[in-house]
């Protein structure tokens, strides 16, 4: 039998750690789970666990990310109301509110929000990741028809605040479901989200605080996963690349409104700690968006992560033409400045 390569051994060990951690977190909950017990379940050393994950919280986020159901994007709705209803149905179907589920999946996820709140860095990143969720959902709603209901805005109006409102209702329902499983009627939650009125969404982009400079540099597309769609990043010889720290995710909207294809590369000063949370958040978004909007309505946006440490306040925008970087902007407002040129 051929010996495994170093990379194959590392991948096998990582899979063993994740499997053991899933069992430990499900059985004992996050707080009572022990790294030593996870190592024992995986038949590895404690050091082998830490060589794959920096701590228990990052390991927990990684387990939850792997457990998000993978579903094909088969939504066929053509209206924003239909998309919001489908989103809400997919959301409540995974909650005790809808299923009265006290099985392994519910127990495994029970400590997620408590662990996000417990860590200031995770809390700040989570807030920005929810803003990214609203941006992607809002951009998708804008591409769908409206039903002529009172309060609906014309097709093409900004819908990010409507998306924020829908996500606020659904996250609130989720938190109540965790605290009081079975309380309330899930279909009422779905109906409430379907009937949300459009809100005042006049958007005033920031005045650019940075300039766009012409350059002529080679560009190599990252060979990694598009976390929004769960597929390899598609090579794009033309478009905008937005390199943004986890504290600057709102800038992705500025780039996306340029009308050009956008690749967003997320960076953080603590990739080992926070990238599992990024992957979890985007896996959840992908799952819900697959139920809500047809693929043609999704924004022309790819999202990936840089595993190397970088500043959480990074904002750099690159314009790619013919496979080369032809313009660059750095600093606050860079994505809007690039989108405006």
Explain what the structure shows.
- The chain has 341 residues and is an alpha/beta fold.
- The protein folds into three domains: 6-52, Arc Repressor Mutant, subunit A (Orthogonal Bundle), CATH 1.10.10; 80-194, no CATH class; 213-339.
- It is built from 14 helices and eight strands.
- Strands 1-8-7-4-5-6 form a six-stranded mixed β-sheet. It has a two-stranded antiparallel sheet with strand order 2-3.
Number of helix segments?
A: 14
End-to-end span in angstroms? 59 Å
Work out the number of β strands. Answer: 8
Major sheet strand order: 1-8-7-4-5-6
Q: What overall form do the CA principal axes indicate?
A: globular
The SS-based structural class is alpha/beta
Segments where pLDDT lies below 50 for 5+ residues? 148-155
Average pLDDT taken over every residue: 89
Number of domains: 3
Backbone CA Rg: 21 Å
Tell me roughly what share of residues is in helical segments: 40-55%
Order of secondary-structure elements: HHHHHHHHHHHEEEEHEHEEEH
Which sheet architecture does the biggest sheet show? 6 strands, mixed
The proportion of strand residues reads: 5-15%
């Amino acid at each position: 039998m051929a010996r495994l390569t170093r990379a194959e051994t590392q991948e096998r060990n990582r899979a063993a750690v994740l499997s053991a951690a899933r069992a430990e977190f499900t059985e004992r909950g996050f707080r009572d789970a022990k790294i030593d017990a996870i190592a024992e379940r995986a038949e590895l050393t404690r050091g082998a666990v830490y060589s794959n994950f920096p701590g228990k919280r990052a390991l927990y986020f990684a387990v939850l990310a792997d457990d998000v159901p993978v579903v094909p994007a088969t939504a066929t709705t053509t209206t924003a109301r239909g998309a919001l209803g489908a989103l809400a149905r997919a959301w409540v179907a995974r909650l005790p509110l809808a299923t009265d589920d006290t099985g392994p999946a519910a127990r495994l996820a029970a400590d997620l929000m408590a662990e996000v709140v417990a860590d200031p860095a995770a809390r700040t990143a989570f807030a920005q990741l929810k803003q990214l969720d609203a941006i992607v959902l809002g951009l998708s709603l804008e591409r769908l028809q409206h039903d002529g209901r009172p309060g609906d805005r014309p097709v093409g109006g900004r819908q990010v605040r409507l998306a924020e409102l829908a996500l606020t209702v659904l996250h609130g329902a989720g938190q109540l479901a965790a605290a009081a499983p079975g309380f309330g009627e899930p279909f009422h939650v779905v109906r409430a989200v379907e009937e949300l009125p459009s809100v005042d969404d006049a958007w005033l982009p920031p005045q650019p605080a940075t300039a766009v400079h012409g350059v002529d540099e080679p560009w190599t597309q990252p060979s990694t996963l598009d976390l929004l769609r769960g597929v390899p990043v598609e090579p794009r010889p033309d478009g905008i690349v937005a390199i943004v720290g986890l504290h600057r995710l709102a800038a992705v909207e500025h780039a996306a409104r340029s009308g050009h294809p956008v690749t967003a590369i997320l960076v953080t000063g603590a990739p080992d700690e926070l990238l599992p949370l990024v992957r979890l958040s985007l896996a959840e978004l992908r799952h819900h968006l697959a139920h809500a909007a047809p693929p043609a309505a999704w924004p022309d946006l790819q999202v990936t992560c840089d595993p190397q440490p970088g500043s959480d306040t990074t904002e750099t925008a690159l314009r790619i033409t013919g496979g080369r970087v032809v313009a660059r902007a750095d600093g606050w407002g860079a994505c809007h400045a690039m989108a405006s040129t």
